Amino acid sequence: MKVSLFATCLMDVFYPETGKDTVELLERLGCDVDFPEAQTCCGQPAFNSGYHTLSKETMKHMISVFDHADYVVTPSGSCATMCKEYPHLFEDDPKWKQRAEALHSKMYELTDFIVNVLGVEDVGASLHARATYHTSCHMTRLLKVSEAPARLLAHVEGLEMIPLKNAQNCCGFGGTFAVKMPPISQEMVDEKAGHVEETEADVLIGADWGCLMNIGGRLRRRESPVKVMHIASVLNNKMNGGE
């Protein structure tokens, strides 16, 4: 199965190891992975900031970059959601709407692709730790991906999952929300960090680096020992030789 990796901005700039883990994981599961180097941002920050016309130019570029792909997989529910919104945003442009719909039909968040396209729930990973999981807003509320991460984590050898209080609550990142409304965002992430610490988990796992960066930053400022890990790295852990 041929898969094109959509890396996302945060992963490309700050967390390249997640991209590496994603590629290794997909290859382990029998996928032929390529990385279109011309890819850029999905346009979400600009669109959410009100620059709708300008952001469409970025969207057109992304559509063109992935025209060739059979499947597009990204380790980010938020960015996958944005790409799947393209057809609505090009409602008044039949040519680009058709191409946007093609991208929509082949765009998948990583865990959704593994469970619902590849039909795999046990990837052979191991991580000996107590962990809790943060459900990011875009991924669960808009993309409707909630069961796939839990199914995959349930098969990770040695991993004990601890329920997170008010797991459905936003961490306060919200893309540009954290920049525009910092006092409110800080209160939200402080509450989230407190609930994470209450679990006494060793690791906080998530599927969106925006959320993990936000919560992880707050945990460090609280001098918390809790480590943050992207689910791609958890699922690839045994493959890396780590424990």
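(the above was protein one; protein two follows)
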Amino acid sequence: MTETPVAPTPPKRRVTAPSALDALDIASAPDGRGPLDPSELAAALETARRRTHELTDCLPAEELTVRHSPLMSPFVWDLAHIANQEELWLLRRAGGRAPLRADLDDLYDAFRHPRADRPNLPLLSPADARRYAAEVRAQALEVLGGLTGDTEGAFLFAMIAQHEQQHDETMLATHQLRRGRAALYAPPPARPRPEHRLPAEVLVPAGPFTMGVDPADDPWALDNEGPAHRVFVPAFWLDTTPVSNAAYQEFIADGGYHQPRWWHPEGWLHRRQANLTGPAFWHRDLDGEWLRHRFGRTEPVPPDEPVLHVSWYEADAYARWAGRRLPTEAEWEKAARHHPATGRSRRYPWGAAAPEARHANLGQRHLRPAPVGAYPDGAAPCGARQLLGDVWEWTATEFTGYPDFAAHPYREYSEAFFGAGYQVLRGGSFGTDPIACRGTFRNWDLPIRRQIFAGFRTCRDAGTGVG
């Protein structure tokens, strides 16, 4: 997700009464047991910090301070930025405490310093960044202990836990970009259980559904996820699973990267300028077999995994080649959340229960997507699988606010990116933590980006043929 800094005078969060729309069937917290409580928030903070350490403690100090890619910050910048945001929001805003390190506010402001410039800043050393983060966390937990009944304060803690997890996923992407020995290890996902062959696509019937969510209905929801509103979606057919590596290789073999008729004009220009011939991290060996680089290892491209590290332009070109298109954001969310029998919108494709290992590939338990067709327990009512986890999915929709959008707690979180050419991604990846992944969660990035863990699925209007 695009980085967002803190604003000095954030507006108040608009909390509505329970929605009058009877189409909402959403738990008010990830476990479906009501409002956030301090123990839940403390656990979320601890989980995020443990992952931050796992991503950084595995590297020597010199690898934390260098730039591994112009697209990414040095690891040490992320470390101190995470701590600085926690100080700004949890110590000063929620706790009303005096600044601990006001001198760091400008240095770790993501809007003031583009990623390419950060290696040249007078950043804290890895040891100092860790000490700062530990000191901030100790005080934040003290503040959390006094939050009884403070809905706004609880939201700020939920926001910061998600913020750290989002940076953890960004650091995971930096690990993918770094060169050298492998530093991360995880077991592969389980193979799908043998079953009858899945249909290539599923029908999502026409009709209205409730898109988005109000803060009163989900205290974890960030500002761009709401307000809840009714949207009519015509009937369409959606890929049952994300597009696989094998399917994408057919596009390549058919000359897909050399035929401008499949490409958006700006995408074709970018393809030529960047000399794109396949997904990022792919290359052919001397025998013509496709190999990929994955977290310091080189291996054959597995044909049955969702294709990964493709840009929006590549996803769009594939869809055109296949005689299909990318789903709109509304189509994606209806497929993931709408239950036709009840007319209600769920928090997750499978219901309100918090994600478990049987539902989706989330939380960096693995360092790769699961094969297409995995996780039948996580299927949506329409029959589509792997809508959450595995790979972020590009949509046809440009990132902007919903009707009656209100920025909270600061406009730079979302509003500053509206209408600036960012495309919406949905569903999360294997590197996304469950607290930052739900049916309403919105991610966004530029259509040329490939370092993110993004894939896609395609769709077609009902009544049209499959290309």
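Reviewer note on protein two: The first strand starts at residue 201 and ends at 204.
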